[in-house]
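INTERNAL AUDIT FORM
Audit reference: QA-55
Scope: verify that the stored structure record matches its stored sequence.
Auditor: D.O.
Record contents follow.
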Amino acid sequence: MKWLEVIEAEKEKEYYKKLKEIIDERYKTTKVYPAKENIFHAFSLCKYENLKVVILGQDPYHQAGQAQGLAFSTPANIKNPPSMVNILKEIKDGIGDSQCNDGDLTPWAKQGVLLINTVLTVEDSLPASHQKIGWEIFTDNIINHINENFEGVVFLLWGSPAIKKSKLIDEKKHHILTAPHPSPLSSYRGFFGCKHFSKTNEILKSMGKSEIIW
């Protein structure tokens, strides 16, 4: 099984056909992020057989040049957005400097961290503009698939839309860590000090899996 097969199976479903019509139209008529070819970038970087951790965000960054198809990640050549700054601060306070201080989380993905948002596209300068058009069904189905076909995955759910997904996850098989979203609006309500990065590695170590080099 590969992510491509899982995604192709979703594309055959009625909800996805409707979603695709809407998305195709919006890419034609408005500015949408990430670039169309990067919508499923997270799945191409995090190999199916390598999956260890899922980090779930809300929707992609909505300014030009930021979104690259990996939740929270941005290209190395742009200034880190506030959420990324806060993620790096939490890592530094908890375990030391991150290898991803430039904001590009590709190295995490390649180690088995699936970085996905609950909604995979967004319009320029309009956060949450693609909610409730079908992406949430897609994300739920991906989480259901992981829940049923893997064991011992660590889910990091940040922010209330992500935390709501915990109902899809069997805690007897997997591990769930929740925290407020790392955005400046909520980071001081418990994202700072959540120690999710060291806790994740403790869990992975306890299962005999290699730890993530954050």
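Auditor finding: record pair retrieved intact. The chain has a mean pLDDT of 95.
Action required: none
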